[in-house]
Amino acid sequence: MDSRSFKNPYLDYEGPASTERLFDSAGRLTSSFIQHLQSKISDFLQYMENGLLKADQTDCSTYTGWTGIALLYLHLYNVYGDQSFLQKAVQYVNKSLKCLTGRVVTFLCGDAGPLALAAVVYHKLQQMQESDNYINQLLRLHQSVVKPSSRLPDELLYGRMGYLYALLFVNQQFGNERIPLQYMQEICSAAITSGRKLGSKTSFSKSPLMYEWYQEHYVGAAHGLAGIYYFLMQPEFGIDQDTLLNLVKPSVDYVCQLKFSSGNYPPCIGESRDNLVHWCHGSPGVIYMLIQAYKVFKDEKYLKDASDCTEVIWQRGLLKKGYGLCHGPAGNAYGFLAMFNLTQDKKYLYRACKFAEWCLDYGKHGCRTPDSPFSLFEGVAGTIYFLADLLQPTKAKFPAFEV
After folding, report:
1. Which residues, in sequence order, are CB contacts of 18 under 8 Å at separation 6+?
2. Confidence of residue 1 (pLDDT cuts 50, 70, 90)
3. Which end of the chain has fewer beta carbons closer than 10 Å to its terminal beta carbon, N or C?
4. Residue 216, helix vs strand vs coil
5. Cβ(142)–Cβ(165) under 8 Å?
6. Following DSSP, what letter does each residue of 178-200 receive, concatenated?
7. Residue 277 CA to chain centroid, in angstroms?
8. CA distances from 153 to 64, 278, 289, 291, 296 (A)
């Protein structure tokens, strides 16, 4: 057993009888389980609010800073419809707007996160002038993102896909095409050009699109190929069939060949250690690329690989690093929810509920304390986000990533 994870103590799904306490035959959570989740969510919120009194005042990021807390409150507002959550979201997004980086352009780690979130929150408050102002600021970053000479990477945390997600987030939350599609198409086009350029220079791989971050060819969702290909396969970006079939599909197939015999994936090309089962590196992030490839190309092999990912997550996804989204069971459980929403197989909902039960015992397993223990991607805010998503499992989406 990998020492990075706890042994999974739960019995696996054994048909409807094993789920009686959790959800009914239609996949609706039982009222007692919902009550349990809701009462823990309010306990954890109080714990988080107390902890945030000592948090870094200058971190505006969605990943570990104020925007992540604002995103959690916006999510709670969307789930519960309670106006006080929207007020909290405004309060935290205003904190983040005071400490923009001026350098990083992405949703998770840079200025696009606070700006996109501010645009959405003010829109929901019907303060249209403020909302438009933040959208204009967000779109001012666009030129630097698409410029080939910008030396910007293409990955999610610090690169083009991270800015692309911010534009998409605005449109999804507005429920219409508030930001014209052309902006997103230009980003995809810049990423494809950049990927082809590196792909043509890369001798070790047959992947037509290749990407790197700090001279490493990462594989996973956060810095790597799987995250980039996932976005390039989204139908709303209107990438033409030729590009999808001749560039994106063979690149996805290249990642599929990197799979370990366990069903997991290496953090980087050429890495032989099979030890990371995180959203950022490994199966819990690669699964989204596989599900999307299955939807787009209709090939059963992608579904089989995605199913293998869920086995890895079930066996090795209760991590000792904490309970968070980036490297913890809250983030890992989203892989089950994604498969549940694709296949309607109750086994996956059951597994997500079991990972939630683990999270409900927050702090009782002897995990190590993350650097940002109250934040969205490392700490308790992310756990709360997941538990709230589980209340409406068919709408659940991994935050700041899943389309």
Report:
1. 11, 350
2. very low
3. N
4. strand
5. no
6. SS-HHHHHHHHHHHHHHHHHHHH
7. 14
8. 21, 21, 19, 24, 25
